[in-house]
């Protein structure tokens, strides 16, 4: 899969406590117009959730987030993740991601990190943590010297600031957890999640 950044304007970043929520949650996000879904490997049920979504919601492009080690890469790929996202990029993690054959968005926060990955032919990156690291102004500045590198900013993105990111030529999509608040997931309020997704899907002008 190429151009992971162009499949949807917003990638929901999901933290799941209960694998039973995975399938209805993914269906709600897809129905709202956001088929690219990142389930973070931060909870014990994450791999099970990815497995279930991969098996039962084929129209979702399910990925794994918070991938931090070669072991995470192997586990996520084995569970059926169709892309991998990391908060930062170490040499060992990069080697494992490249070897996996699974598309990935490695995390960066500086020009040097972005240039190091571009040298390896990786030009679609997660910019993390977007707001604390410098936000829209920072990414705009990177676009001058690094016009061939594109980003998915994540970290502090909201429906209010997302349009300014999405208007940048070096931003393909944004990531965020606002679509799947724990309170709504726990309550099983998937109708509300679908509504949040449809509002987010309309954010790209
Ligand atoms: C993440 O990878 O956890 C993202 O940074 C989510 O950030 P947010 O909760 O600020 O959207």
TrEMBL record:
<dbReference type="InterPro" id="IPR013785">
    <property type="entry name" value="Aldolase_TIM"/>
</dbReference>
<dbReference type="GO" id="GO:0008675">
    <property type="term" value="F:2-dehydro-3-deoxy-phosphogluconate aldolase activity"/>
</dbReference>
<keyword id="KW-0704">Schiff base</keyword>
<keyword id="KW-0119">Carbohydrate metabolism</keyword>
<keyword id="KW-0456">Lyase</keyword>
<dbReference type="Pfam" id="PF01081">
    <property type="entry name" value="Aldolase"/>
</dbReference>
<comment type="pathway">
    <text>Carbohydrate acid metabolism; 2-dehydro-3-deoxy-D-gluconate degradation; D-glyceraldehyde 3-phosphate and pyruvate from 2-dehydro-3-deoxy-D-gluconate: step 2/2.</text>
</comment>
<dbReference type="InterPro" id="IPR031338">
    <property type="entry name" value="KDPG/KHG_AS_2"/>
</dbReference>
<comment type="similarity">
    <text>Belongs to the KHG/KDPG aldolase family.</text>
</comment>
<dbReference type="InterPro" id="IPR031337">
    <property type="entry name" value="KDPG/KHG_AS_1"/>
</dbReference>
<protein>
    <recommendedName>
        <fullName>2-dehydro-3-deoxy-phosphogluconate aldolase</fullName>
        <ecNumber>4.1.2.14</ecNumber>
    </recommendedName>
</protein>
<comment type="subunit">
    <text>Homotrimer.</text>
</comment>
<dbReference type="InterPro" id="IPR000887">
    <property type="entry name" value="Aldlse_KDPG_KHG"/>
</dbReference>
